[in-house]
Amino acid sequence: MPETAGGNERDLLRATAAKLLTDRAASARAEADQQGWSRSLWELLEEAGLTLVSVPESAGGSGGDARDVAVVAQACGYQAAPVPLVETALLAGWALAAAGLAVPPGPLTVVPPAAAASAALVPDGPGLRVRGRLCAVPWARAARQVLLLTAAPGDPSRVVLAAIDPRDCAIEPGTNLAAEPRDTLVLPSGGVACTPLAADGPDTSGAVLRGALGRALLMVGSLRRVLHLTVGYAREREQFGRPIGRFQAVQQQIAALAGAVEQAQAMTDLAVTVLDEGGRAAEAVMAAKICAGQAASVAIAVGHQVHGAIGFTTEHELHLHTRRLMSWRDEYGAESEWSAELGARVTSAGPDGLWDLLTGRTAAVAAR
């Protein structure tokens, strides 16, 4: 893949990701039922170069930008793919490359901020070591490496990175509502050394925003799948001698769902574009996560209402997406948290800063 894919290359990327995931979706989910994730699907995606999309080639990645990884992430969300694509490409790959470190092959993950708070950073000569437990780490049992990115005690401007080998830890299995791995790592008794990062390296706020964007991208893919399943079922299921999709009440519900999905899609597209262009991505990402969370409420309600009892059965695909939506909407900040933060930024910007905030562009970008 070129360093930054254009329109034709991105269409090819979209078709490739969709084909691979569609062909292996059912077998991957069956494999995940046994071990929590699909190693075979991961190896297939890795062979195709899709697991490190957006990570610079100089760091061992596939190249591309945030718009490219967004294509793959949404395809994973659409197929409920049980692999740590977002954690590897958008989070761990970004953090290692930004720190000037090589990105190893294999699945990677990053400790979320809430989990990082459960561990302790202790002095170790001139440096620091991390000890204790890291709770609810996404995909820890599958990861070759777990990254902890956190601020040093007493000095928020000093960011340190710990690269943890899960094989050196005791792993207590756990899951979220969607049965995705959210494991607890019990670190070695001696702890793990932390590497101080340069001031221009990755920071904790950037990791949080990328985590929120990654969840929003997965949610948009899953939302679109719920919409397609719901429209298809409404066309096929008959009541009183005609498809239920011909009843006005059902049509209104599906229209509300379609509107919510398109709003979430538009906001995530904007966030990804602003991130690539170097604009004010923070507010755009917040808005994307808010819209995705609000759309999830609509999708869960409408999807199950239209499907009725069959949508709650284990055999039907719908619950794979609604349970993921319920889980992902709360990870890396629920919409209520981001709404409060975004509202505070809007009010503090004042009249002079409101336009730049609304357009999401810095003066440097706008001048180009």
Mean pLDDT: 92
Tally the beta strands: 11
Low-confidence regions: 362-368
- Series of H and E elements: HHHHEHEEEEEEEEHEEHHHHH
Number of helices: 11
Quaternary form: single chain
Question: Globular, elongated, flat, extended or rod-shaped: what is the shape?
Answer: globular
Percentage of residues in strands: 5-15%
Q: Structural class, from helix and strand content?
A: alpha+beta
Rg from Cα: 21 Å
CA distance, first residue to last residue = 26 Å
Residues in helices, as a percent range: 40-55%
Keywords:
368 residues; alpha+beta; 5-stranded antiparallel beta sheet; 4-stranded mixed beta sheet; 11 helices; 11 strands; 54% helix; globular; disordered C terminus
Report on the structure:
- By secondary structure, this protein is an alpha+beta fold.
- 54% of the residues lie in helices and 15% in strands.
- It has eleven helices and eleven strands.
- It has helices at residues 7-35, 39-47, 66-78, 85-98, 113-116, 204-236, 248-277, 281-307, 318-328, 335-359, 363-366; strands spanning 108-110, 119-124, 127-138, 145-152, 155-164, 170-172, 182-186, 192-193, 195-196, 238-239, 242-243.
- The strands form three sheets. Strands 2, 3, 6, 7 and 8 form a five-stranded antiparallel beta sheet that branches. The chain has a four-stranded mixed beta sheet with strand order 1-4-5-9, covered by helices on one side. Strands 10-11 form a two-stranded antiparallel ribbon.
- A hairpin with a 2-residue loop joins strand 4 (145-152) and strand 5.
- Helix 8 (281-307) crosses helix 10 (335-359).
